[in-house]
UniProtKB/TrEMBL annotation, chains A, B:
Family: Belongs to the monovalent cation:proton antiporter 1 (CPA1) transporter (TC 2.A.36) family.
InterPro entries xref list: Cation/H_exchanger_CPA1, Cation/H_exchanger_TM, NaH_exchanger
Localization in the cell: Membrane
Domain Cation/H+ exchanger transmembrane: 30-442
Name under which the protein is recorded: Sodium/hydrogen exchanger
Coiled coil (UniProt feature): none
Membrane-related topology note: Multi-pass membrane protein
GO biological process: regulation of intracellular pH; regulation of stomatal closure; sodium ion import across plasma membrane
Pfam families, per the entry: Na_H_Exchanger (PF00999)
Cellular component terms (Gene Ontology): plasma membrane
Residue ranges of the TM segments: 20-43, 55-72, 84-101, 113-137, 218-240, 274-292, 304-323, 343-363, 384-405, 417-437
Organism listed in the record: Dovyalis caffra
Major subcellular site: membrane
Length: 544, 544
């Protein structure tokens, strides 16, 4: 990831060109963000749309308008920069994901998620690389070497599950949600690690030693990144528990939580680890310990502030991608041979679909073999939805493609320009076309539970689907604890450990958590009552 | 202000030089911010310290350490940039000030605040300019023209009341707080407008026409900026009231409020107005209307999120100023003649004290003449505190000085270097020495009410002084309404309007607000009960 934090100056490149033009751009961009939120709200009940597609389409429309006004010279307000994306926009999204995830479901399906996220991404990357190598060699595109092909594999192996998660519901389809969500996070991390490894390793002569080195490196990164995230989260819990005892200050607590979360991401970058994994596990630990050590006001504030940051960052990304898609410079190379570009995009899209099918169905089969209860198994319809949910390609693919095929946002080689435009095409097509079809598809494949509880949830709670997941945080707190006891009898032998490993691990984790971790770091039930709650501080009638 | 939004690329200039070094810098900076919060919390009960001084001292110490490690080459992590300050750090501080201010006190003292903030700053600027012109002409400093002298006046007329406001309490000394606070906001705006006017006007031949133009321009800016802020605030209230009726979403509401507040600032920049004034009045309108149209969760979240943003931005600024103070490049010019630098700094500090005294005491006298009730008058001790509270010079002065005397953070002229180092010296000296003396001074001058309620508030509410002001928002909501009725009988004639103008204006404002504004834009008591409160959504036992 280190490589992306290069020329952040280019982030606001438009600001250096002209002063007043930059202010106009920023105004327009902030106004468009507001517009996306309002329109997204109005279209909320719509069967097809969601916030991401709205932002993408508004971005495209704005791009067209700017293109027309500037006489075909310019289409975007800001130059797309991986730095802006990886330093400012991605961390809040991933942190919020970890902070709001239902830990019970996530850890119960931990092995399956890892299978999909790590092994699956490797399979997908290999298939796309090999397929592209075989097909593109026969087309005249430009000089593309083996490193480029592997990079293409990594770029198109990075899924974008934001769009799907806006449609899937954590309550109705907890298994599906946790699988798609968990896979998305692990997949992001895997793709980025893979991409960096491809950039840095000498790939001209691949042999067993290099392959072994590669795999060892991957697991080392995974483990250390997770540990760093857990460490930072525990540190924040410890600091707030020790220091703020009896003298709580909401502003300081909230500021410390935000800064420590961001620090975990930056520390991972410092040690050349995966910031995405680190900040994700930091979010999980913070919601399990730190969140219980602060005042009621701080809890409400952090819960919603993190969700809002993540929400704005998502809209920002889609608006940005939509606006950047029309950049005239990249399309100039392609306009000579539109057929080639369409062919390349279609081939890549096909490879994405094949590559994903090649691991979702076999790995689901493997995962089902290990499950005893039929309820825990992944049915064929669910497998299809998992396959479908990972077809969308988004900002991570864009950022990686820009990093590989451009130098500070500009490209002058034909082959590179075609790769960039193909990435844009695949991202736009998959997000808009596949994205539009997701809601109807899910309601066809999973008709009853989905539809019932969705209409129920809308009538009982006027919040959006996104906000619906928020109150779950409280329920999620004790999920780690309950898991050992409530369904399966306590295992008493080594055999039990072998047959129900996840549950046994959770049972011992729960004992360890209660005996050592919670007295040390705080958490639900282990912190004295903290005043400063909104219900306490002001008379009740003020809140009605 | 337009001029400041130039080369924002320089903001993260360090990032372009070396990739890994930049990550190290960002890590260190975030870690230092965390450290400042923790140390500030530990020193909270200390008689002398406050958060600003802590941040400044930590910044200085870090600067020394970096200077030693780098062998005297470098002392800061980031190059100080007016852009970063004016675009990202100042808006949240001023918006939060408007959002949390006690509107009752602010509007009651509106005329006095305007006297101090606008007329006083003009007097102060004139005295400093004339004094500097007379004294510096006799010293060998370098080529300084009349525009530079006027700029020096504007630079050193900009007070920094952040430090004082951390010590003054809105509950104990409401009059003093609102005067110091209101003056601070108006003073910031006046200084910036003044500075821009000096930069753009042809000042070689000043005559009555230019002076009249200048004054007209000032009032035009003031009025339009205020109106723009009020308009944006009302727009946000209207959108949220109309759109979110019955279908509230906390994330969207919070995101809209933050984005619209920022939009108001950027719009002001777009139209070459004063963003500071605009965002301040936007904050006032948002807390009066918009804040009442959202869910309970949104209210708690926005209240604390804005306060936290402002808090972090303040610490960031002081840390930044402290670290930048040791920049070796600027001190090189001064090292030849340390006597000159000390002399210039002392003279400027003296002029600041004289210039402030020259308007605080006469204007307080004028203001007292208009007041009938002795309680409303400003006593001599209070005048002394108002004088003292405005002696600190801070980030606004630094930003203006950098804008005037450097080009993108570097200076190569002796005169300019001396001005920069003198500004740094005055800022450091006034913030640390005067800042340290403020708490003891206030407890000597206002011994009884201050001390009693301070210890009381700590025992009854474990929040910090900053957070103590937060619950006041609710009380503040109805202050505009109550003002007309609760103390003074309703005026029934034109004579009453002349003798108690403020109260009469408020009485009619209240009628207008109830009859037209609130039904249109929402507000306390004019919005149906909004579900989604933390107390409603989850069972009560979850919150204990």
């Amino acid at each position: 990831m280190e490589a992306y934090i290069g020329s952040i100056g280019s982030k606001l490149q438009m600001l250096t060109t002209s002063d007043h033009a930059s202010v106009v751009s920023m105004n327009l961009f902030v106004a468009l963000l507001c517009g996306c939120i309002v329109i997204g709200h109005l279209l909320e009940e719509n069967r097809w749309m969601n916030e991401s597609i709205t932002a993408l389409i508004i971005g495209l429309c704005t791009g067209v308008i700017i293109l027309l006004i500037s006489g075909g010279k310019n289409s975007h307000l800001l130059v797309f920069s991986e730095d802006l994306f990886f330093i400012y926009l991605l961390p809040p999204i991933i942190f919020n994901a970890g902070f709001q995830v239902k830990k019970k479901q996530f850890f119960r399906n931990f092995i399956t998620i890892m299978l999909f996220g790590a092994v699956g991404t490797l399979i997908c990357c290999t298939i796309i690389s090999l397929g592209a190598m075989q097909i593109f060699k026969r087309m005249y595109i430009g000089p593309i070497d083996i490193g480029d092909y592997l990079a293409i594999g990594a770029i198109f192996a990075a899924t974008d599950s934001v769009c799907t998660l806006q449609v899937l519901n954590q309550d109705d389809t907890p298994l599906l949600y946790s699988l798609v969500f968990g896979e998305g996070v692990v997949n992001d991390a895997t793709s980025v690690v893979l991409f960096n490894a491809i950039q840095s390793f000498d790939l001209t002569n691949i042999n067993a030693v290099i392959a072994w080195e590669f795999i060892r490196n991957f697991f080392y990164l995974f483990l250390t990144s997770t540990l760093l995230g857990v460490f930072t989260g525990l540190l924040s819990a410890y600091i707030i528990k020790k220091l703020y005892f009896g003298r709580h200050s909401t502003d300081r607590e909230v500021a410390l939580m935000i800064l420590m979360a961001y620090l975990s991401y930056m520390l991972a970058e410092l040690f050349y680890l995966s910031g995405i994994l680190t900040v994700f596990f930091c979010g999980i630990v913070m919601s399990h310990y730190t969140w219980h050590n602060v005042t009621e006001s701080s809890r409400v504030t952090t819960k919603h502030a993190f969700a809002t940051l993540s929400f704005v960052a998502e809209i920002f990304i889609f608006l940005y991608v939509g606006m950047d898609a029309l950049d005239i410079e990249k399309w100039r190379f392609v306009s000579d041979s539109p057929g080639t570009s369409v062919a390349v995009s279609s081939i890549l899209l096909g490879l994405v679909m094949v590559g994903r099918a090649a691991f979702v169905f076999p790995l689901s089969f493997l995962s089902n073999l290990a499950k005893k209860s039929p309820n825990d198994r992944i049915g064929f319809r669910q497998q299809f939805i998992i396959w479908w949910a990972g077809l969308m390609r988004g900002a991570v693919s864009m950022a990686l493609a820009y990093n590989k095929f451009t130098s500070s946002g500009h490209t002058h080689l034909r082959g590179n320009a075609i790769m960039i435009t193909s990435t844009i095409t695949v991202v736009l097509f998959s997000t808009v076309v596949f994205g539009l079809m997701t809601k109807p598809l899910i309601s066809i494949l999973l008709p009853n539970p989905k539809h019932q509880s969705r209409s129920l949830s809308i009538s009982s709670d006027p919040a959006t689907p996104k906000s619906l997941t928020l109150p779950l945080l409280e329920e999620g707190q004790d999920s780690l604890d309950d898991l050992g006891g409530h369904e399966i009898a306590r295992p008493s032998s080594i055999r039990a450990l072998l047959t129900t490993p996840t549950h046994t691990v959770h049972h011992y984790w729960r004992k360890f958590d209660d005996a050592f971790m919670r007295p040390m770091f705080g958490g639900r039930g282990f912190v004295p009552f903290v005043p400063g709650s909104p219900t306490e501080r002001s008379p009740p009638n003020q809140w009605h």
